[in-house]
């Protein structure tokens, strides 16, 4: 089973440098590594002295690099899309539209990147896939796509399926979703989600730090520290496991009070092309130890504690349905399924203190 690694931090905190050092470290230890970049700037070209290509290219033994180009990814998937349309619709409408004529819709970059990442992850070629998106907000949006899509499918499934448009498109949409997101779900599956835990299992995959894990990147700059803490909370909101904090260009000043639940790793400043000091200071990324829990549910007392570092009280909103809680914080919405003994119980109180939202049912 491959591991996906990503790094979350403020722009200019050095995530690309750390990603490259990580790839070098893991490749030298024998892991087959693919470093996936979605950075449109020439930062990787400069750091590696090698232009990043749109297909995986070997940089060193066991170390390959690829730069995702949205236009090319769209071109690849558009062919699959038109084939599906022709198969399931009597009068396909997109057959005369070519990918060169299409623009990239807002949010499509993340969806295309997620699909590419999935294919590399499942290819069996690599032991570790490192994703450096160049922008942490985009990275978090990318990892939130499955849960957001699930939310909309749950809410609007029945309305869509009963409409004339839905009856026409459902046979086409189901295999399309299967192609893009590698899932065999049908609309009936979503109806049964509360019984067979389909959505729960999807969230569990993202939370499994042996399969997908993130590390925060910061410098000792106060703004960078605050941003890393905010992204820590954002990662938890999309269900992404955070395993530690990497302080880039560290001078040894203490910042651990901000991240007291996480392991802290200090990296020296990179000098010219000497990567070894950084490599030696990096964590053991293959460590199987558990990550800190972001949710603690005590069924006996009916209390739920949700860890939301980096957010203020006025940024947090809580809503409830019969079997779930929805927590909105920052730009993310997180669904929390209630265990059976708590289903149907109303929220008695909710307070936000010391980075925790404490809910009593």
From TrEMBL:
Which residue intervals define the domain ArsA/GET3 Anion-transporting ATPase-like in the entry? 4-252
InterPro entries for the chain: ArsA/GET3_ATPase-like, ArsA_ATPase-like, ArsA_HSP20-like, HSP20-like_chaperone, P-loop_NTPase
Question: What Gene3D superfamilies has UniProt attached to this entry?
Answer: 2.60.40.790, P-loop containing nucleotide triphosphate hydrolases
SUPFAM superfamilies registered for this protein in UniProt: P-loop containing nucleoside triphosphate hydrolases
Q: Where is the ArsA HSP20-like domain?
A: 304-360
Sequence similarity: Belongs to the arsA ATPase family.
Its protein name is Oxyanion-translocating ATPase
Q: Which organism is it from?
A: Atelocyanobacterium thalassa (isolate ALOHA)
Q: Kindly list the organism's lineage.
A: Bacteria, Bacillati, Cyanobacteriota, Cyanophyceae, Oscillatoriophycideae
């Amino acid at each position: 089973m491959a591991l996906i690694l990503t790094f979350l931090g403020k722009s200019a905190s050095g995530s690309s440098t750390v990603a490259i050092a990580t790839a070098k470290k893991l490749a030298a230890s024998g892991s087959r590594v693919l470093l996936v970049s979605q950075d449109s700037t020439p930062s990787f070209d400069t750091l590696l002295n090698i232009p990043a290509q749109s297909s995986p290219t070997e940089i060193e033994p066991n170390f390959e690099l690829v730069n995702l180009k949205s236009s090319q990814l769209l071109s690849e998937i558009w062919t699959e899309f038109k084939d599906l349309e022709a198969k399931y619709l009597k009068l396909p409408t997109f057959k005369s539209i070519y990918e060169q004529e299409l623009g990239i819709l807002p949010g499509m970059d993340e969806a295309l990147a997620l699909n590419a990442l999935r294919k590399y992850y499942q290819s069996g070629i690599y032991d570790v896939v490192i994703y450096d998106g160049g922008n942490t907000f985009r990275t978090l949006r990318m990892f939130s796509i499955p849960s957001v899509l699930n939310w909309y499918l749950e809410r609007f499934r029945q309305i869509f399926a009963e409409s004339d448009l839905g009856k026409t498109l459902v046979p086409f949409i189901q295999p399309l979703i299967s192609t893009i997101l590698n899932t065999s779900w049908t609309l009936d599956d979503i109806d049964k989600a509360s019984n067979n835990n389909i959505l729960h299992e999807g969230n569990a995959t993202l939370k499994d730090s042996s399969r997908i894990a993130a590390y925060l990147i910061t410098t000792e700059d106060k703004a960078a520290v605050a941003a890393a803490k905010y992204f820590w909370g954002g990662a938890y909101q999309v269900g992404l496991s955070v395993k530690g904090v990497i302080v880039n260009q560290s001078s040894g000043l203490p910042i651990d009070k901000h991240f007291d639940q996480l392991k802290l790793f200090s990296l020296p400043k990179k000098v010219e092309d000497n990567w070894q000091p950084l490599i030696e200071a990096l964590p053991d990324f293959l460590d199987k130890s558990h990550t800190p829990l972001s949710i603690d549910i005590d069924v006996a007392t009916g209390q739920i504690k949700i860890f939301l570092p980096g957010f203020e009280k006025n940024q947090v909103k809580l809503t409830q349905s019969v079997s779930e809680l929805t927590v909105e914080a920052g730009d993310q919405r997180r669904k929390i399924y209630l265990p059976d003994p708590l289903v149907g119980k109303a929220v008695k109180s909710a307070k936000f203190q010391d980075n925790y939202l404490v809910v009593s049912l």
